[in-house]
Structure formats: structure tokens, C-alpha cells
Write a structure and sequence with these properties.
Elements (H helix, E strand, L loop, with lengths): L9 H15 L1 H8 L5 H27 L9
């Protein structure tokens, strides 16, 4: 992954790099690999993540179709 440094502004380049790494899921991957995870625990975690993703997608679909009200923004 590369980030261009413009006008010697290293701080901005670091922010862009961190945002890209966050979007790619590198930090989550590092956190997961910090300790050994038993295969059974990994299976349970992946299943829970899939359920969470499906619920979120279903909620967004229901909002788009007008079945439920969109959350109020503050």
C-alpha cells in the first residue's frame, strides 16, 4: 500500500494511511493474530460476524423498502 506525501505533509499522509489500513481490516487482523484462537472459537466468531452482517443488511433493506423507519440523526 502506498500513500503520496504532498508538500512534506507527513501528518496528513499518516492519517490517510491509517484510514486505508482501517478500511482494509489490517488492524482487526493484527488484533486477531495477537493470540492463538482455537478453531472452535474461530468458527463461533465467524458465525456471529455473519449473523451480524446479515441482520445489518436486512435492516438496511427494510429501511429502503419503507418497512421500518430510518434511525433519527442527531
Amino acid at each position: 500500500m502506498q500513500v503520496q506525501v504532498r508538500d512534506n505533509n507527513v501528518d496528513q499522509a499518516l492519517r490517510v494511511l491509517k484510514k486505508r489500513l482501517q478500511r482494509e481490516g489490517v488492524f482487526r487482523e493484527m488484533k486477531l493474530r495477537k493470540y492463538f484462537e482455537k478453531p472452535s472459537e474461530a468458527r463461533v466468531r465467524r458465525k456471529a460476524e455473519a449473523i451480524r452482517r446479515n441482520r445489518k443488511a436486512a435492516r438496511k433493506q427494510a429501511i429502503r423498502e419503507g418497512l421500518i423507519a430510518a434511525p433519527k440523526r442527531a
